[in-house]
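To the wet lab folks,

You asked to see what we're planning to order before we commit. Fair enough. Below is the target structure as tokens, and below that is the sequence we designed to fit it. If anything looks off to you, flag it before the synthesis order goes out.
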């Protein structure tokens, strides 16, 4: 399965939705969507990976790079994922500790609100 990437802005948050497989061949479209948001000044990024079925080291590298870039610009990135296989990979690699991962978009947005209040 190829990768489909859509992008939007919701309440000031750059939202990127990925569906399919994130690998060496498909990763550039994900990287570009994230870069476009950062270049437009949307430093709060939400990456919805609910429909991602596979991610390789290239895709994981994009997640790390995007999170670092967002933090460097004063923002942050949240992941939305409920796929047990992808969650296990994020845990094994330590990315689940470095990047906030939420089962739904609503919970990811609440995390930002809680952060702003706290």
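Sequence we intend to order:
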């Amino acid at each position: 399965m190829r990768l489909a990437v859509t992008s939007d802005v919701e309440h000031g948050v750059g939202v990127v939705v990925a569906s399919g497989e994130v690998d060496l061949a498909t990763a550039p479209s994900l990287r570009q969507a994230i870069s476009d948001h950062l270049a437009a000044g949307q430093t709060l990024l939400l990456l919805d990976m609910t429909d991602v079925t596979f991610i390789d080291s290239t895709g994981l590298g994009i997640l790390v790079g995007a999170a670092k870039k967002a933090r460097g610009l004063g923002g942050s990135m949240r992941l939305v994922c409920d796929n047990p296989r992808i969650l296990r990979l994020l845990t094994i690699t330590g990315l689940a500790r470095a990047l906030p991962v939420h089962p739904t978009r609503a919970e990811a947005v609440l995390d930002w609100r809680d952060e702003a209040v706290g």
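Structural context that might help your review: Residues 67 and 77 are 5 Å apart (CA to CA). The chain has a mean pLDDT of 92.

Thanks,
Computational group
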